[in-house]
Amino acid sequence: MNLPFILSRVKGITSNSKEVKKDYLFFAVKGSRFDGHDFAKEAQKRGAYAVVAQKPLHLNIPVIIVENTRKALGESAHIFFGKPSEKLNVIGVTGTNGKTTTTYVIEKILETAGEKVGVLGTINYRIGNEILGEGRTTPDPITWHKTLKEFLEKGTSHVVAEISSHALDQFRVYPTEFEAVIFTNLTRDHLDYHKTMENYFLSKKRLFTEYTSKVKIINADDPYGKRLINEVQGEVITYGRDGDLRIEEFSTSLEGSHIKVSFRGKEYTFYSNLIGEFQAYNLGAGIAYALWKGIDEEIIKEALRCIRVPGRFEVVYKGAFTVIVDYAHTPDAVENVLRTTRKITKKRLISLFGAGGNRDREKRPLMGEASEKYSDIIILTSDNPRDEEPEKIIEDILRGIKERERVIVEPDRRKAIELALKTAEVGDTIAILGKGHENYQEIKGVKYPFSDAEVVKEILGGDGCIGKD
What we know:
The protein is α/β, with parallel strands linked by helices. It has 16 helices and 23 strands.
């Protein structure tokens, strides 16, 4: 009994036994905490038509044995929802940093070119301003293929998506057909899951070797990008200081950025409101895709002029001092954001951040070390502590900081932000890092409403006054 035949007879598919209804197909997926095989009998009781498993099960309904239930679930979702990626132009962006901004850059270019575009990413799933779902870097395979189908039904021609290493390792987007796949960079993150940088890289590499795509766009300046270029087949376009799309010049300030690139014998100059040295690569990736696709230079210019990416080097207050909110939560991202902020700060740089609980502990001191390079004052606080004690996480960050006299510890994030705002003087910049667009703080399994940007606005009030003479 094969899966395509079964899928033509079932009413739904799921890997959650509690979601099983009559004539559903249940996939027994082994996760990090639970093994779906242990819930196969519950699925049978709820009326499952059949169970897909990796080992024999004693049930009164058909059991289909496959080598990998995660992979089978992805393939089945693809078929069940009508193979939507084959009818769409799907652009997949992977890398440690820059995924969200790169997807927003490409979305804006395509929209300006007259296309209807869907976005799947960390912030949300949407078409323009229509929100279809809450954000997760890459959703589970059923949500992924179902959302692609919904995009297709709503008339989108293109979908720009962030593809995480977890998703690639767990076959969440398998076997999507891509128009383009993009590699931004690879730096330390998620080693609580991948254990080694090699495993992390190999997960990312899958997008370029195990999926169909018309073009592979790769950052030639990144060490792992250089390696990837030599390990993939098909059409490859590189971008960077030494790429096929060569970044000739780049300048940035609080007013925006100018980028000059050359591609296939022609030079182009663009302006964008995006701020930060690292934006050279986010813009470079988007421009490389657009020029490969044959989009007119004037359309690209118009698109890049104004791109708003929530929580990505977002200036949330600009007065006597400046306040920036950014999602940076890895050592490399913290360093990139603070290095750029240092260059555009007239006087002192005040950095405020924490680190996520139940995640890679070894990156915490590295984040502290990165902050010390550029900050005059460091305020350590909570991020999403999850099941860990905030004070313990802060202790881990402190291991990377030598000059402790620069550090202020305030575990309460709201109080820490208020302290930063009261400490700031004329010409200073405050960089609030780690949570970016997030509108919650996760503590002991509960998500409490919390937005860095909104807290800043609440404390400063309409005129930016916080009680200083």
